[in-house]
Fold each of these.
Amino acid sequence: MNLRIFDHEEDLNASGAGLIASLLLMKPKAVLGLATGSSPIGIYKHLIALYQKGRVCFEQASSFNLDEYVGLPVDHPESYRSRMNELLFHQIDIDLARTHVPNGNATDLAAECRAYEQSLETCGPIDLQILGIGHNGHIGFNEPGTDLSGRTHVVTLKEGTREANASFFRSLDQVPNQAITMGVGSILKSKQILLIARGEDKAKVIREAFLGPITTQCPASLLQCHPNVVVLLDRGAGRGIL
Ligand code: F6R
């Protein structure tokens, strides 16, 4: 594992964006695994700035998002499809047809999960998977102690996860109860993983994930089994390590 702690947000963002930009330079058809949530936003902003300066091109790249809420209309501002369109896809030259986000409104969710996994198999493996981490150690929406099934599946969100995401909605009861998520197995198939965490409130879980035992009680600890993980932390999130 390659772990780096930054004093300045801008340096963290530049480091993450630099990793993605250099991958695209070497491999223009790279498959990117993307996350929503607040952790990667600064990196996406930095990537957009690099794109505007002509230093990175997404024309031939494709992407797979980790997860999507179940039952939230796709044009709802908090659907992960809407968030990705706004935060990244509409600001770069990626072909929208090659951006994949699970369909949380599919009538047959199990079939949607199988189809998503099939597309991952066909287009993958993912060259670089971006991850945030939940306070309880979730990656994607793979919650602790639940079925950490290897493949894309439907999960019921823990109350703590819904509460953490409630700030994006008008009230807690508007946060969906379920989501589709790539499984830990799907995530671990990625060639490289880039995990980002910011803020002192993530320090405890970062310590558990990377210095604690490998356990399904902390899904992120399973990343210790992966040979190529880069972890970028701000000083707050790195506090439990240094
Ligand atoms: C988002 C995702 C989640 C978040 C995690 C951290 O696509 O899969 O695992 O990465 O909940 O969220 P933030 O970054 O908002 O702290």
Amino acid sequence: MTTENHQERVSVLGLGAMGGALAEALMRAGHPTTVWNRSAGKADALAARGATAAATARDAVRAGPVVIVCLLDHASVHEVLDPLAGELAGRTVVNVTTTSPAQSRELAAWAERSGVTYLDGGIMAVPQMIGKPGSSVLYSGAADAFHQYKPLLDTWGTSTYHGEDAGMASLYDLALLAGMYVMFAGFLHGAAMVAPAGVSASEFAAMAAPWLRAMTGAFEEYAAVIDGGDYAVAGQQSLVFSSLDDILDASTGQGVSTEVVAAVQGLIQRQIDAGHGHEGFARIIESLRHPA
Ligand code: NDP
């Protein structure tokens, strides 16, 4: 990391909860930072601490070689960037707005046509985590831009690069979020089950957190089975043994919806019906790979 890189001029478009946190981290690291937000007021606190508040997105873009974009969604990114293609030509856009892989690739193609260097980012953190341990951001797209600006990007958390395909960062981001949301739904299902027994959600959380943490150890075992391609490898719990009927019965008994657990039971049952009941739990990835 050179001093020059540390002091790279940078512009941030979008000062919502996340964009504001990103700009703040850049300023803390000593980067001369120009900020812009569509509606007034959100730049004031940053300007009071030394950021340059640009009156327009165009002015912000003109302020430096690298433009961080953290807006609501794909449509808002186009709405802001399209009229600025001329100014952006020759500059680098790092777009950390959440978009689908297809939208990221579309933006990368738009950038290429406009002579803009494009790096897509997926933020694996909430605003309060930015710049702190545990925060990570996934990138894909222009490799040179990633390496050139890595010291700047590292001010937000651990930066990792996932290849020239601009859609990859988003794909990993959304795949990781899929795991998170389903896990959260599973936790909430459990909390709903014990609630009628007078157990508070906080009490249940204290039990569920260490249990689920311990269970993540199984990911690598399942992954080895999937990558090895033999779901019948010895030493696994079989699908017939993994029936979730007891959980479904207990849920119904507690007056709780079975939607979350029934979805998993459906994935298991399809493999049993296809004659794979003696194989291990990892086999249900085949139900996911081949939608019913
Ligand atoms: P906010 O809702 O707090 O901010 C949205 C920002 O987008 C505001 O600056 C808003 O401007 C701007 N905006 C929306 N529409 C337009 C438009 N048409 N033209 C110009 N500006 C527009 O969201 P966050 O800051 O939390 O999130 C920003 C991005 O970061 C999202 O894509 C989100 O998915 C992603 N992200 C957020 C995380 C989080 O925990 N917050 C975690 C990981 C990723 P205005 O103030 O004028 O409304």
